[in-house]
Write a structure and sequence with these properties.
Strands 4, 5, 6, 7, 8, 9 and 10 form a seven-stranded mixed sheet that branches. The chain has a three-stranded antiparallel sheet with strand order 3-12-11, with no helix packed on it. A two-stranded antiparallel sheet has the order 1-2. Helix content is about 20%, strand content about 35%. Strand 4 and strand 5 form a beta hairpin. By secondary structure, the protein is α+β, with helices and mostly antiparallel strands. It has a single domain, classed as Cathepsin D, subunit A, domain 1 (Beta Barrel), CATH 2.40.70. About 10% of the residues have low confidence. It is built from three helices and twelve strands, in the order H-E-E-E-E-E-E-H-E-E-E-E-H-E-E.
């Protein structure tokens, strides 16, 4: 009788944990996404969303993760927390550095003089003078990189902050998985 009760208790414990484990597995693999209020949605039901792609995440086996779905124009847009302030940014694997817009740099409290814009950067529109600075951290969902050198574009020269390889290269991995960009640290 004691053995039967023990088996029943183990079964009850297993069946109560199973939905949470299954949910995290589905989120981690991109089959489901978490909305801003924490509720779960089928990944397919969010395909038509044209707003900034909100990352989904799972801290699965100690891995910090962000999963970004493509936004308008199939670009991967993210709500990045730079020095703890929210900045809308685009993930750009073709950019060598993180490049802040002048306007975002001002909102972050970075004060730059015209003399700071002395570093030539080759862009599609020719050479542009950027400023260099260091920021405390960039976090996208659970993925964070600290003490990062970035460049700042002159006023009006860049339409959106770009998260480039200086951030991505410090991650454990970044990859495409079922049409989504997965960042892991």
């Amino acid at each position: 009788m004691a053995r039967l009760i023990l088996i029943a208790l183990v079964a009850v414990a297993a069946f109560t944990m199973l939905p949470g484990v299954a949910t995290e597995w589905l989120v981690a693999r991109g089959y489901m996404v978490r909305s801003a209020d924490g509720s779960l949605l089928s990944a397919q039901s969010t395909e038509g969303n044209t707003r900034t792609a909100a990352p989904t995440h799972a801290n699965y086996n100690g891995v910090r993760r962000a999963v970004l779905k493509p936004g308008p124009g199939e670009h991967f847009l993210a709500r990045a927390h730079i020095n703890s302030k929210v900045v809308e940014a685009m993930i750009d694997t073709g950019a060598t550095m993180v490049a802040l817009t002048y306007e975002d740099a001002r909102r972050l409290g970075l004060r730059l003089d015209s003399q700071d814009f002395r570093f030539g950067v080759q862009t599609a529109n020719g050479t542009v003078r950027y400023a260099r600075t260091r920021i405390r951290s960039i976090r996208i969902d659970q993925v964070e990189v600290k003490n990062l050198d970035v460049i700042v574009a002159p006023k009006g020269a860049l339409g959106m902050t770009l998260i480039g390889m200086s951030f991505l290269g410090k991650l454990k991995t970044f990859r495409m998985e079922r049409g989504r960009l997965v960042l892991e640290s």
